[in-house]
Amino acid sequence: WLIKKSMLNLTQILQQNLETTVDFSTADLCDKFGKSLQVAKADFNSYGGVKKCFGKIATIKIDEDNSELVSMLQENGDGRIAVVDVGRSYCAVVGDTLMGYALKNNWAGIIVNGYVRDTEETAKIPVGLWAIGTCPLKSAHIFWAAATKFLALFR
Questions:
Q1: In a 3-state reduction of DSSP, which class is residue 32?
Q2: What per-residue confidence (pLDDT) applies to 64?
Q3: Which one of 55, 64, 138, 152 has the fewest CB atoms closer than 10 angstroms to its CB?
Q4: Cα distances (angstroms) measured from residue 140 to each of 40, 62, 66, 124, 143
Q5: DSSP state of 146
Q6: Exposure string (b/e) for 22-61, b if CB count within 10 Å is 16 or more?
Q7: What gap in Å lies between CA 63 and CA 83, rounded to an integer?
């Protein structure tokens, strides 16, 4: 749960000094780099197939419609970690389908300030996934139907 605070290239340092991505501990990194790191609160739970990962972050802020996140995860992640701010809306914005995109497109992990679903399946996918909890409700896809002029909300 470390966020780079200075120009220190933590990813590069980890890659140069570690044989595998599981050879580090957060406490050791905090001891070594002190105030150049920022530690996120520990109120996230792990729902992915790996318990540790590191990489540069790509941030996205969405509402209950996860279509922008879908587009992002369908691009090459190049070992990055997607940090998703959903404002803790009570719907799942990541499940097994999006985790499949993350795996296919080389994302190291996803951190969601919100909820996830399909956790029995996401735990089998070798991508990190952390969220504040689970919710069985899908994200909402909101669009206007121009011909009939109504707002449709699908869950």
A1: helix
A2: 86
A3: 152
A4: 28, 11, 7, 25, 10
A5: T
A6: eebeeeebeeebeeebeeeeeebebbbbbeebbbeebeee
A7: 14
pLDDT, position 9: 56
- The encoded tokens of residue 86 equal 């959903």
Q: Which two tokens stand for residue 29?
A: 């990194």
The residue to which tokens 């669009």 are assigned: 143
CB 92 within 8 A of CB 66: no
In terms of Cβ atoms closer than 10 Å to its own Cβ (0-12, 13-18, 19+), residue 85 is middle
What pLDDT score does 14 carry? Answer: 57
Segments in the chain below pLDDT 50? 1-8, 19, 143-155
The conformation of residue 140, written as its DSSP 8-state character, comes to P
